[in-house]
Amino acid sequence: MPPSRMAPSSGRRLATQLMIALGGILIVAFLLGSFAQSAEITEAPDFGGAYVEGLAGFPQSINPVLASDDASNTLVSLLFDGLTRTDPQGQVIPNLAETWDIAPDAREYTFHLRDGVRWHDGTAFSADDVIFTYGVLRDPSYSGPYGVQWRDVNVEKLDRLTVRLSLPKDSFAPFLEFTTVGILPFHILGTVGARDLPAHRFNIQPVGTGPYKLKELTPDRITLEANTSHTPSPWLSRIIFRIYPNYKTILTALERDEVEGAPLVEPGDVVRLQRRKDVTIYDAPENTVTMLFMNTANPVLSDRLVRQAITSAIDRGRVIEVARNGHARRADGPILPSSWAYDPNVKRLEYNLARARALLDEAGWTADPAGGPGRQKAGNPLRLVVLTNDRPERLAVAGEVQRQLVAIGIDVEVQATGAGGLVQDFLLPRKFEIAVYSWDFNGFDPDPYSLWHSTQVAPAGLNISGFSNRKADEALERGRRSLDRVERLKAYAEFQAIFAEEVPALPLYLPTYEYAISTKIRGVRTGIVANPPDRFRNVTDWFAKTRREIATRRS
């Protein structure tokens, strides 16, 4: 049988189909090539993974209105939300409140709460929770740390998601920061009075609205799990705290790989830990300044020339090296350089030994006629006592100050007391001449009224230097009364200039806060630290797991 032959039309159809197929392949190849040039595969955070950190001591009260120890405050920062919170620069931003309005006289604040927020047990959050929480803070029987701030504030519910807070007298610029305190659940604690709150089981079985919720609490471990309904929702599925006696034992645990993070690394340990490739040491500016407070009621230190001489005689760079191995920044005034209120144009307090000696001469403290190293005035030797507590860092500061003041003829004795007794037994009663002490700005508002206004010289007031200056008082009053930042800047610039001239204290340095976290945890960002838990400020951005995504590049 002769071989079959393909019809001419069939051959043409096949050729056409082949050409179409080939063309399609070329088009697809072209598109894929173009896509490959305009897109790339990237890694993005993914939900999952855990972070294990050491906790110094067992938390005493996991309650936002009662917590006072670092362990409790750390957990509170993860489990609870306030109406507001602070960003890495210390600015107040929305949290449980979406927005707020401030009345023209700056005495009324109306907060509009976020809808859809739920407590960890599923109950809806509302204005009732806010009213209850602030009611606890206003209660005369409340024994926690916020009573002074809230005692006279009037609290009013306008509707389910709106509350109004009214100040009793004048406007008060730092007030908004008070609303960062965590809110308590009315449906759980509504029948509990402020007096009974410290003994309530809620303090070890907390229910909040924060990014994490309590899963398990044992004597040696606390496990938190992600609150996936939180806005924003966290990436890490768990945070586990292993409990140790103190920060030093946590550091040992980190070096033994028992934990992945240490909440505090002392300056002397930083260099050693930096050698590890699996740990990152984060360095954040603390909202703290270490100062030499001078008691202006002392006959010698009441003379501004003597205070200026002491200021000129201290090499703060050397103090930082001796006391903190260089892990601090030099302080220049009573307002932190990180604050919007800091005035860089104010006269700096510079190290100048020749000027220091000349100032003492001008004040009448002349060289010892017998040829000794000291100075005298009317036959009385120039002697001062530098007081501090027995913390190694503070003792190092006091010792270096002693060494430097001897160089200008001041006979200095260093005395140390226990950490707990320094404030109550010596500073508040003004039973000191010069004191080394660190002032912690508990918030981020720059208002220094409590430390330098003359009304705060009263017993138990914090103006431990006894500084009294009418123009400084007026500037401080304007600064805390106005909500206009330009006006506040002017007031605080005036105060800083007066302070630089009068020097009731010498700001020495601004400590940096170092903490360690495993390199497996990414997304960590540092910011100003007022309290150790501030290191968790952006915890919802932390992640340990990633997923691949295709990202298109813009041409």
Features:
single chain; 555 residues; alpha+beta; D-Maltodextrin-Binding Protein, domain 2; Dipeptide-binding Protein, domain 1; Dipeptide-binding Protein, domain 3; 4-stranded mixed sheet; globular
Please provide a brief summary of the model.
This protein has 555 residues and is an alpha+beta fold.
What does the model show?
The chain is of the alpha+beta class. The strands form 6 sheets. Strands 12, 13, 14, 15, 19, 20, 21 and 22 form an 8-stranded mixed beta sheet that branches. The chain starts with 7 loop residues before the first helix and ends with a strand.
Portion in helices: 25-40%
Number of helices: 16
Return Rg in Å: 31 Å
Question: How many beta-strand segments?
Answer: 23
Strand content: 15-25%
The secondary structure category is alpha+beta
Question: What is the CATH top level name of the largest domain?
Answer: Alpha Beta
Which fold name is given in CATH as the topology of the largest domain?
Answer: Dipeptide-binding Protein, domain 3
Sheet with the most strands? 8 strands, mixed
- Say what oligomer this is: single chain
- General shape: globular
> Superfamily at the CATH H level of the largest domain?
Dipeptide-binding Protein, Domain 3
**Which segments are poorly predicted (pLDDT under 50) over 5 or more consecutive residues?**
1-8
Average the pLDDT over all residues and give the rounded result. Answer: 92
Q: End-to-end distance, in Å?
A: 65 Å
